[in-house]
């Protein structure tokens, strides 16, 4: 057994910009300070501000118009939550009657004790014992999947996990990408046919785990973690391959959703899993995925 | 290092993967992540290199100065390592936040270079007892993705390979003080022999197994690691220093295994580095060229 | 005043530029993956990396209920200068520049949009060859744009000097700075013609100020145009790879 070492030269860096050659569909782009439209008849939304008679862009991005509301959406930013979004998040602090949670937002998010299902019964009162037991349920570092329930005035997101599909996450791998790379879809939970489950959090946190069997997992309220269970090698290979594929797509700024990930997974099969860390393979997988997505659209 | 917290379940997944010899990114326990190398990108340093190992990014600049040799070692030059953890890499490094880690990195390198068989300071002597070269190896950490020790040592070695020390053409003695004439031609210079220069290999103990090139997440799962300095001489690998990191302890048998793993990993690592450096030099030449750096 | 002539008889500067010419500018957004925004900018031989973290929850001791906390750090690599620096930051000059960076950025960032939050802006000078503050600020602006933080407009800085025969010079290099001529640094919001920060060293006659300042402001506008071009190029690359499918059609 030898050590695999691969040192490439910067002069041979693969130009990922080649993936962006087809610019025919590019919309009008706006940059900070640029006039978007006159103020009359329009309302300013996110990413815009009013100066004099004009609505101006405050970020670099594209325009989105809903009736009279004009906003400019940056192509990359921290997560801006919306009610109903699915997120993957990490507990950062256990406080009184609530947990502080990192969702990659502008502010720490919260998970109230009243917004979780407690083990042993769905709708019982939450007493003092529960408060004392909070760290038993979820402690610092734990990952959860949740939904954005509410947005407080100052912008803090309030999450909830009172559904069987949400809750504490067990063994698996977390991948972080820019939130705007995760495409908004009807569902963000997928049991992929290749043999693993993914949760595509709207906040850019993506969770990859062995396929979850929903029926068997129902009763415990989602707090049990079987830490003794060893994930079989075959599942591990699928998870690692998915991880590398998702990172490859993200590196190339390609959108992430079930189809793109599955295509990337299939195109990656000619490589060993660890080979997918290399620039050529990343580019190749992204390129072939892009090609298939375009064919499919036509 | 960069603040990463992991849940117990994530740690378990990583740990079992290491036991299975199939890590989260598909590597075996002995594999390194891909690296990218460029030398000669800082124009006001005598030598420079940038090494990117996955997300770990290190930039090294080497400055040369003329100094007086130490009284006890009149025929030796000097080398000094300085590490700065830029806040660009992690907000925790702001102000003096990265100092502890920086000192540890610099000290480990200093120890690795201490043996005259690893790096012969006599080659930096100009006039015994009078004048010598002092090399400042200044290391800047721009992004942290785990395994800083290895990355830093490789970048330092690459920068030393790239270093051009001006040629001293004559020395005049004037009332006991030496005055040096240094060649005006920027291409008339001496180079440093890098064959023996040590590199560091971090062997990270996760569960009951050891891995090389730990990612930031893997480092989080480990309570103890051994950094093994390896220097090559006459085709054989020698240990130039060992440094343990982490709050845990290593059994002496484990330590022995770590060192063996470090030695064998260093062999390939060193070969690939030297190969890449020579390849770059043969392709771009030693004269001025366009750097890639952070563009493209 | 200057004991060294900055302009040759042919009207060229020490590095061959004409009086109003900028040095060659190259830049790129999104050079690192860990920060929320990052940028690299080189102006001649001055090369700077900037990283932005945030907006994120402000530490409770700094937290402001009405607006964002802007936290800056300017640092120079020990090998960045011709003479080796002993330490990368903490010296008076770096602290001063840190302060001025924050001042100029505050004028551009829409601070009221992020109450209770904090934005960290870190600048690392890799090579210093004059106009360090200006290049640092320009890189920081690009990093903020990359991070998607709301700005009124770009905030751009440029320097200017004055030759012995009263001809204003744009974008002063290190040698020109050192030769004893005056240096004027202006950070401006070019579209609205506002000045966010200005500093002048040495002395010259008041009559010359408008010309020197106009020269610096002109430089700002030119630099802004270059930055704008790069931002658009960057957006185009990011969006086109995914065929703009993230955009609601």
UniProtKB/TrEMBL annotation, chain A:
Superkingdom, taxonomy of origin: Eukaryota
* Chief subcellular location: nucleus
The record's listing under InterPro entries reads:
Exosome_cplx_N_dom, Exosome_RNA_bind1/RRP40/RRP4, KH_dom_type_1, KH_dom_type_1_sf, NA-bd_OB-fold, S1_RRP4
GO CC terms in record? cytoplasmic exosome (RNase complex); nuclear exosome (RNase complex)
Q: Localized where?
A: Nucleus
Q: Does the keyword Nucleus apply?
A: yes
Q: Which Pfam families match?
A: ECR1_N, KH_6, S1_RRP4
Recite the UniProt keywords alphabetically: Exosome, Nucleus, RNA-binding, rRNA processing
The UniProt entry's GO biological process terms, in alphabetical order, are:
CUT catabolic process; exonucleolytic trimming to generate mature 3'-end of 5.8S rRNA from tricistronic rRNA transcript (SSU-rRNA, 5.8S rRNA, LSU-rRNA); nuclear polyadenylation-dependent rRNA catabolic process; poly(A)-dependent snoRNA 3'-end processing; regulation of gene expression; TRAMP-dependent tRNA surveillance pathway; U4 snRNA 3'-end processing
- Residues in domain RRP4 S1? 78-150
> Which residues are in the K Homology domain?
172-211
Ranges for the Exosome complex component N-terminal domain? 29-65
Instruction: Report the family membership.
Output: Belongs to the RRP4 family.
Q: What is this protein called?
A: Exosome complex component RRP4
Q: Which gene encodes it?
A: LOC105226174
UniProtKB/TrEMBL annotation, chain B:
CDD domains documented for this protein: RNase_PH_RRP42
Annotated coiled-coil segments of the chain = none
What single Pfam family name could you report for this chain, choosing any that match?
A: RNase_PH
UniProt main location, coarse: cytoplasm
Q: Where is the Exoribonuclease phosphorolytic domain?
A: 32-166, 197-264
Q: Which UniProt keywords apply?
A: Cytoplasm, Exosome
GO BP: any one term? nuclear mRNA surveillance
Q: Name one GO cellular component term.
A: cytoplasmic exosome (RNase complex)
Q: Does the keyword Mitochondrion apply?
A: no
Where is the protein found, in the record's own terms?
Cytoplasm; Nucleus, Nucleolus
User: A single GO molecular function, which one?
Assistant: mRNA 3'-UTR AU-rich region binding
Q: Secreted among the record's keywords? A: no
The similarity comment for this entry is: Belongs to the RNase PH family.
Q: What is this protein called?
A: Ribosomal RNA-processing protein 42
From TrEMBL, chain C:
The UniProt record lists the Exoribonuclease phosphorolytic domain at 21-149, 154-218
Gene3D superfamilies, per database record: GHMP Kinase, N-terminal domain
Cross-referenced Pfam families, in alphabetical order?
A: RNase_PH, RNase_PH_C
Q: Name one GO cellular component term.
A: nuclear exosome (RNase complex)
Going by the entry's taxonomy, the superkingdom of the source organism is recorded as Eukaryota
Please give one Gene Ontology molecular function term for this protein: RNA binding
* GO biological process entries: nuclear mRNA surveillance; poly(A)-dependent snoRNA 3'-end processing; rRNA catabolic process; U4 snRNA 3'-end processing
Q: Which SUPFAM superfamilies match?
A: Ribonuclease PH domain 2-like, Ribosomal protein S5 domain 2-like
> What is the similarity comment for this entry?
Belongs to the RNase PH family.
The protein's name in its UniProt record: Exosome complex component RRP41
Where does this protein come from, organism-wise? Bactrocera dorsalis
The encoding gene is EXOS4
